[in-house]
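Hi team,

Below is the intake form for Ribose-5-phosphate isomerase A from Halalkaliarchaeum desulfuricum. Please confirm the fields before the structure is written into the shared record.

FORM ID: S-0412
PROTEIN: Ribose-5-phosphate isomerase A
ORGANISM: Halalkaliarchaeum desulfuricum
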Amino acid sequence: MKRTGGTDAAKRAAGETAAELVDDGTVVGLGTGSTAAFAIRAIGRRVDAGLDVRGVATSFAARELARECGIPLVELPDVTGVEPGDCGVGAGIDLAIDGADQVADGDLIKGGGAAHAREKLVDDAADRFVVVVDRSKVTETLDDPVPVEVLPDARGSVADRVADLGGEATLRTADRKDGPVVTDNGNLVVDCAFGRIDDPDALATRLSVLPGVVEHGLFVGIADEVYVGDDGGDVDVRW
Ligand code: 5RP
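The structure came back. Fields below:
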């Protein structure tokens, strides 16, 4: 569920400050959303000025923006040592910069842009994952609905199982056209309201094992730091 309270000034401060963390010769995970977009544009300006970097996009939208900004892109298998017919080992992403919809105690709810499956893959693979948010995203306890990407045929059964867990699932629909939101992976998103989430780790585990769940938007213990921007352009680094 998108929170719209944050200002562009605060998002810019967080995104552009995090973009300064990118070192020459490294691979950077490029997040999705309006705050991560400030980071992508700032990295693009640094590439124009001579920075040697390769980006791994977390979504179609992030890929398009990175291309527009002139950031050379590679695919995740290219940096994880995957050979054809082989799994490969290890992760080759030095730093990932990504937004979040809600942050409490370093844990996140993501997926407002329906990109959380690939975001989790890239953010978790990074040696350092820096979250960029404005202050409106920071709270004591997570309580926003949790986006859950599901196989299209599983939306009903997942909604039933979410009800068994004490939640209420709503199929996400697009703002300006009929029909559901379809993810980059061809799946659907159900937003699952549980109220206050006192134990994000336990809920994450319960959601992960539901048949038909591709990925949920609880990011527990994945973030290394959270850059919180404010309207005056200051950035507070937390967790
Ligand atoms: C997309 C995400 C985004 O990072 C999240 O929605 C934050 O976006 P914004 O910076 O525009 O508020 O998780 O799936």
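SUMMARY LINE: The first strand starts at residue 26 and ends at 30.

Thanks, M.
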